[in-house]
Amino acid sequence: MSTFKYADEKIKSQDIMIAVPSMVIAVGIFNFPATLAESTRYADGWVGVLIGGIIVILFTWVVAKLASLFPNQSFLSYSSSLVSKPVASVLTILFVLQGILIAAFEVSTISIVSHLYLYERTPYEVVAITFLLVVVYAVSGSRAGIFRINVLFLPLIFLISGLLMLFSINFMEIKNVLPVFTTDIRGYVRGTFDSALAYSGVGILFFYVSLVRDVEKVPSRAVFGMSWVVVLYLFVYLTCIAVFGQETTEVIHFPFIELAQSVEIPGGFFERMESIFFVIWITAIFTTAMMSFDVSIMALQSLFPKLNKHTAVFILSPIIYFIAMVPNNYLDQIKFGKLLSYATWILPGFVAILLWVMYAVKGGNRLEK
Amino acid sequence: MARRSIFNRLMKSTSNRNEKNEQQGASHPVITKSLDDNIQTIKHTLGNPTDLVVRELMIGGIEKRAAIIYISGITDEKMINSNILQAIQLNLKKFETNILEHIHNEVVAITDIERAETFDDVSVGILNGSSAFYLDGHKEVLLMGTSGGEDRSIGEPESETLIRGPRDGFVENIHTNMALVRRDIKDTNLRFKQHVVGKRSKQKVVVCYVEGIVNPELVDEINRRIESINIGYISDSSFVEQWIEDNIYSPFPQFIDTERPDMVSAAVTQGKIGIIVDGSPFALIAPMTFSDGLASPEDYTQRWMSATLIRILRYLAALIAVFLPGLYVALASFHPGMIPSTLAYSIAASREGVPFPSAIEAILMAVTFELLHEAGIRLPNVIGQTIGIVGGLVIGEAAVSAGIVSPVMVIVTALTAIASFSIPSYSMSIAFRSLRFAVLLAGGFLGLYGIILVFMMITIHLVNLKSIGMPYSTPLGPTFLKDLRDVLIRAPITRLKNRPAYMKTLDKVSKDTSVKQKKADK
């Protein structure tokens, strides 16, 4: 039924380039300026963002390169060839769990943040379930469709962030930024650590690279995609500090959304920009939830090849919903997010190191064939 | 999955039909040597209709009986009289050994003439407007193409008027329609692949493309789908469209429908495929993308900068047509703080005394508007103006002064209506109109959050939708950067010489390569 080759379930390396920022940009960006401002002085956090970014770019390359060594092979099959089948299965199950947790985290963030910025009356449950249903609708469609959604939504995200920063130029104060390099070395290390945590989601590459047609370009494209995120984070951080100052940023829960609250669009048609901003940002959160859900399904299907996609969706979505209902307020939520960002570093990091080591030990080139 | 089951069902029913045909074959009428028997069989099979003309004649010198049989009304009787009857009577004075051969080769002055030996060929021929020539003592019949009769003349396409551009439109006659396309494209590679569709109506469906440009897989797929059609009668090309489209649960049209031959010609030279159906002045063009639904031929006849501005305006209109009432309801009932305070006050003041919540008010107005629209279409033109007055007065004035709706709501509804009328494709505009209600409900229940959810759902639907296997969101979804110059902007014609890359055409460049060659020679 595929008249056009590009209409089948295969994707191009450009789609990976788009998918990486779509996955990484979600809710982490809301509060990372606050955590970063705790450990650094004035605008010095940018060093942390940059170093953290370089680390994450390297990590992206490591993962993408590893996955692209085994074109058209699922994570389970290539990891089985490196570290025996049982270990590979356990790792796959861990990725299923991680995908579920990320999706649940996004769902619960939507319901909690929408209470802060959109309305108070509608119950959490309704907000969460409607969002989850849309995610379910997306993952029930074709997998290639998911990448097309990314392509359509990502420009929107960059556009709205760009506009937001443009409009906040009026509110920037130079005294908030200067002087530079006043932080001690421990502050920089902490800042790097904190901002690296904000870039999570590289784990999808382990799975999605198997869908790519021109696999040899994947590592460079994935790195390129990740560098957009680093640039965006840098600008967001600097804008927040320049507008609020370091002390204020530190105590705001979601500095990036508050930034929207402080700006005014010329022409005065909309007030309370933060609601509009958050509503559009929902698409960014949505793409993350959608892809992590989809990766869970993909991982689950590789474990149980006979499992129907719709059955998998049907089994996983109640679990996601219940996990999403656990945190009740934004403090719980931030704690949840913190734990999750550790997990999303430890698991792919561990897997990447393990597989690379095994690849080196087993003398990889032989295995590729 | 759903597709496959539809096709399975289809395959089953076609095989059933074949079995039935074979059963009927047992008592099938045949052509005999006796002229009287043959005439009786024809009359009997067609139920002795009054419009069946049987002209018996004696052929001059040899005193042999013959007959010309045709149906009046679908034939050109002048042609029968002068080119067949007269010719035979004047020319056959002397004896000929093989008289049928002689008539076929020398006498009859008609180009389209063939011999038929089975009764089916003869009866179908007669029903198609041919004249059958029977000769006593022969089992062969001459079928002469005399089809004609009254046709609507070529007029301006009513549903797609342009300020600038060709003014001819398709008619109901498929031969005229094919000729209209042929007049535009004088290329030896222009192909018209004919199918006969309709168990009862036996209509011609023609698939039109340019060989050497079009992707052959696409042609095969369309031919395969058209062959699967199993239906008694097709009153319009939309039957074909609905039968062969990819997703029957989508509000969006998956074929471009057009009355304009220039649209079909432009499409086939771009590597797309036109489908012309006998009896329908609407041709179909496939595959279709979302941006095709918002494009108009006018875009290409105006200067590129104004055309680009108009296109952007049209995308804006599409957004307004789908989202404005929902957005208004969401802002008014959930987020009044987001509207500038002076505007919020005046909205609140205008809603003073309105008994319904704004969601109900909006649905009320939207339904009323749809009613007006529908009534306006169904009524003959003379009475149609009444609807305008009733609508303008009742909806515009009376409803507001009676305090049922607020004036702001009237403005919102009117703006939405105007926006939905500015969508060039009617079937696209219907899709937007139905989606508007989904947005309205979502905005009424969940505010802005609901609207963004619906927006995402529409996007999800659009990226999963396909038209003849091509994603509907092309060239945005599967990204083809070069093709983006003809989506939101319309680049200058000189920059559009390459065919769309997403069509995967065999011949990528539409400019004439021989020109370059000539220059090089000089």
Q: Could you walk me through the main structural features you see in this protein, from its secondary elements to its overall organization?
A:
With about 375 residues, chain A is mostly helical. Helices cover about 75% and strands about 0% of the residues of chain A. Chain A has one domain (about 20-355): Amino acid/polyamine transporter I. Chain A has 17 helices and no strands. Chain A starts with 12 loop residues before the first helix and ends with a helix. The mean pLDDT of chain A is about 85. Chain B is elongated, with a radius of gyration of 30 Å. In chain B, a hairpin with a 5-residue loop joins strand 9 (about 275) and strand 10 (about 285). In chain B, helix 11 packs antiparallel against helix 15 (about 405-420), helix 11 (about 305-335) crosses helix 16 and helix 13 (about 360-380) packs across helix 15. Chain B is of the alpha+beta class. The interface between A and B is large, with 41 and 38 residues.
What are the defining features of this structure?
heterodimer; A: 369 residues; mainly alpha; Amino acid/polyamine transporter I; 17 helices; 75% helix; 0% strand; globular; B: 522 residues; alpha+beta; 3 domains; five-stranded antiparallel β-sheet; 12 strands; 49% helix; disordered C terminus
Query: How many structural domains does the protein architecture of chain B include?
Result: 3
Helix and strand element order of chain A: HHHHHHHHHHHHHHHHH
Mean pLDDT of chain B: 85
Seen as an oligomer or otherwise, the chain set is: heterodimer
The fraction of residues assigned to DSSP E strands of chain A is: under 5%
CATH topology-level name of chain A: Amino acid/polyamine transporter I
Portion in strands of chain B: 5-15%
